[in-house]
Amino acid sequence: MQVFKAMFKVMRSRLPSAMIYVVCFVVISAIIANASTNDNKFEAKRLDISIFDEDDTPESHALAEIIKKSNDIVEIEKDKDTILDSLYYRRIDYALIINKGYADKLRAGETAELFSSYHLDESFSVVYMGQFLDEYVSTVKAYLNMGKSFDEAAASAEQALSQNAKVNMLSRIDKGGNSHFSVDFAGYFQYMPYILISIIISVVSLVLVTMNRKDIRFRTNCSCLKESKYTAQLFIGSFVFVFFIWLVFMIFGAILNREMYTGRAWLAVLNSFIFAIVVATMAVLVASFEPKDNVLNLITQVLGLGMSFFCGIFIPVEVLGDGVLSAARFLPAYWYVKANNMIADITPYSFSEVVECYLIQLGFAAAMIIITLLVRKVKYSGAAISTAVKKKALTH
C-alpha cells in the first residue's frame, strides 16, 4: 500500500482548501435552517402611510378610518416632490390618494380610477395594501348590491376583512408517516452535489495529478507494482477521502435536523453516498488527463455549476425546459435530484424509481472507472513504447 500512503501524505497539504468549502457549506446551511424555523411565524407590518382625501365624503372618511386602525398615518404636504422625498428617505412607505368622485363611482358600481398611489418598490407590504383596497371596494360593492346602505356596507366590509383565520404550519413529512424528512431538510441534500463536486474534484484530482508526475510515475514503472494495482490503490485512496468528507456532511446533517436519520431520510443519505462515489470516479477520470492547476479549476467550476444549473440543483426542475431536461438526463446529478425530490415528496414518491435513480448513478460511476482504466492503459503504454523506441535508437 505504498501508493496509498504516499497519496495521503500529498492529500494532507490539500486539506485546508477542502475545509474552506466544508465550513462555508456548513455555515450557510445552519443559517438557512435557523431562518426556516421561523417560517411559521407571521406578523402583519404596520405601514407608515400618508392619505390625501380629494373626495372628502363620508364614504372616503370611512375608508381612511379603516386604514388608520392597522397602519400609522403620517401627515405631509400634498406635493409630488415632498411625497417622493418622504418615500426616498423612508419617512413613509406608501402615499394613498382617494380620487375625486370616489363615493359616486363606488355607489354606481364603478371600480376604475378610485385611487392613486406612490411607492418606491413592490414589497410584500405594498402589494398587501393594494390587495386590501381591491378587496374593500369589492366587498362594499357586494353589500351595496344586496340593498344595504353605504354605512351598513362599509361596516360589514370592515368586519369581514378584519376576520382572522387560525393557521398551523406543519412540517412536510412523507406519505408513509413512519419517517420525518421535511422539505427544508431535503434542501440540505439538494445543494450537496455542488459542494461535493467542488471539494472532491479540486482535492482528489490535484492529488492524483501530483501522483502522476513523471518522476513518481517512472519510479512506479520501474518497480514490480503492476499498473492495475497502482490504479486500484489510487481509487481506494480517493474513496477513503470521499467517505471522510461525506461522513462529515452526514454528521452535521443529523445535528442540523436535531435528530438521527429515520425512515425515508436514510434513502437521502444513501443517495448522497452514491453520488459521492460518482464524483470520486469523475475526479479520477479528470486527473488521468493530467490538467494544469488553472485548467483543473476551470473544469471543476464547469462541472459543478453546469450540473447545478442544468440538473435542478440551483434551479427547480419544474421551471427547466424540456430540452434542458432531456440533455440533463445524460448527467448523474439529474438522477440524484430526481431521487431527492421523490424522497421529499416534492414529486410523487416511488421506491422502485428511487432505486432506478441509484442504479443509473452507479452506472455512471462504472462507466467512468472503465474509461479511466482505458485512458491510463493507452496513455502509459504509449509512453512506455515511446521510451523503448528511444532507447533502441540510442543503442544504434
Automatic annotation (TrEMBL):
One of its GO terms (cellular component) is plasma membrane. One of its GO terms (molecular function) is ABC-type transporter activity. Keywords: Cell membrane, Membrane, Transmembrane, Transmembrane helix. Pfam families: ABC2_membrane_3. The keyword Cytoplasm does not apply. It is a multi-pass membrane protein. The chain crosses the membrane at residues 191-211, 232-256, 268-288, 295-315, 358-375. Residues 20-373 form the ABC-2 type transporter transmembrane domain. The keyword Membrane applies. It is found in: Cell membrane. This is ABC-2 type transport system permease protein.
